[in-house]
Amino acid sequence: MTNSPMSDPRHDRPTPVSSNSDAPADVTPIQVMTGSKSAIFWAGVVFIAGVALFAVIQVDSWGERANRLPSRFSLDTSELTSVDAAQVAYKEIAAYPVEMETLRAVAAIPDGGFAVVGDVEIQRFDESGRKTQQITTDSPPTCIAFALDANLIYVGFAAAVHCYDAGGERRAVFNEGLNEDSMITSLAVFEDNVFVADAGQRAVLKFDSEGELLLKIDEEKKVEQGLRSFVVPSAHFDVLAADDGVLRVVNPGARSIEAFTLEGDALGAWGETSSAIEGFFGCCNPVALSMLPDGRFVTAEKGIPRVKIYDSNGTFESIVAPPAAFTNESTAKIEIRDSQRNGVLDVAVDRDGRILVLDPNRQTIRVFIENSHE
Amino acid sequence: MDTNSFDSGKQDRRRFMADALRTGGVVAMASAGGFLVGRRSEGEPMVWQLDPDRCTACGNCATHCVLDVSAVKCYNCFDMCGFCDVCTGYFEMNYKSLDTAAENQACPTGAIVRKFVEEKSGQRFYEYTIDEPICIGCAKCVEGCALMNGSLYLQIDHQKCLNCNECAIATACPTEAFYRIPQSQSEILKERAAAVYQARGSQTKRVIERDAEQTGTEIDQVKEAEANELLARAERQRVWRASQQKGSDSQEPSFQ
């Protein structure tokens, strides 16, 4: 507003005249600073904004460093999760999505393809990952194995094994020797025998093809042979019946793989407790075991998820998939919420020697082959 | 004396008395009603507690409590614990050896006590308990345990908690894991722990009832009481979680 005398149109009265009536009229309503004044002004603004931002970050109680604790008050898994790239001898060539909420186990089908159990379903896929069959079950299945001719499918539930024919019709139920403590976690088939790993009873049960219980490798049988019992702190207890006619059982609490004859007589054990890549980490690993056609072993671990290869004597050989392949690399923070924690891996080897890794977090079957393989 | 003014004064006094009586009656009735409503709506005291299923082990519990040593402590759900020889909650990730030397322990204050329980066919089992006064609630062990069984989790120790009107940790909690819960509930279990308690309580009841039937003896009262306690703990959690779910479904604030 100028200071020239003028009347107020509302009251038709003259407005007060400024005492400084001789001052020049202000023709620019906003004074714009130029030159060094402007530079100083904007430098000040930036400085104040910076201080404000710093203050906000300092009092941000939800930020990464909000707890103001030294680093020794948080767990550092970086040493465990980083691996020597030279040790990774496999590459991922495919990932087949599986339409299930919860994936629990994968098994190779002897005449090609693979099958996955989870939710309340069994799904069969061909070698290219195309779903060929779906069987709905009464309760959540936990594991699966195929007879050598692939005409019979054995599926484990909490306390029973169901035998289906190739068409998906249930033919038999095995429950002898299983009880309310049972928690079946793995199945293996060799010739006419079905081997059942029961984490609840900490035992491996041997059935014939009709479902008659033939043998129980439990604490009593192991102690008779001067062996350590199966130590199973969590419901991950794997069994493998390979073509060489030897039964291998993971003793997770002992971080070892134990070999038995088909009659349950101990043959030996291998495995080392260690957080290093050569050993098995934590309280109870590996969680899954399979065998390549040349007799080498494939193992999968939980906690620090990783898939590794051991030679037929149990000596560490190489890495199939490092922890980074299964975790979100954007954060090193360990997720402790049950609803957010990573699911546990399972492994199988198909007839072509491809390693099938069940990744429940991505709901896929991931396929790995050796780098040297074309 | 003017008789009209006398009658008028008499009427005013009567009206005043009548108004006073009416007002007194209304006040008395309102007071009685308020008293009765107040008695009916009087709830039990509420306390702060944190939901371990929402906790991310961020470490804020250790430093944001108004107490010098936080009222948040670590607890071990023994029914979920493997009593392992290699406990990832107890041992540092790069431990030198599996013993109790300070350099091998993950806990920066040495608050986890490792106690040998038994050796069973060549395998040694250990019990891990928390020395509460030393625990500062940093949750480093909770992170380690989560790599395996996840039996270690944080809870507020009500013996220590000042039950502030506005909990400083709750304000700083990035996942809003803090709740006001009835004092009688006192704890919030992991859902997995509640399921384990439910299963163990039910199984114990089945076993003692079957044993009593087979042997023709009375039901073991002590074991039955233990089973009932487990079932009650699980049921309290189920009810609380259901109420939280209902609250969130109806867009009611579930926090505080």
UniProtKB/TrEMBL annotation, chain B:
Keyword Transferase appears in the UniProt entry: no
Listed GO MF terms: oxidoreductase activity
Enzyme category, top tier: oxidoreductase
Source species, domain of life: Bacteria
Keyword Metal-binding: no
Chain segments annotated as coiled-coil in the UniProt record: none
Span of domain 4Fe-4S ferredoxin-type: 46-75, 126-145, 152-183
Alphabetically ordered keywords of this record: Oxidoreductase
EC number, UniProt record: 1.6.5.11
Record protein name field: NAD(P)H-quinone oxidoreductase subunit I, chloroplastic
Species in which this protein is naturally found: Novipirellula aureliae
Chain's gene name: ndhI
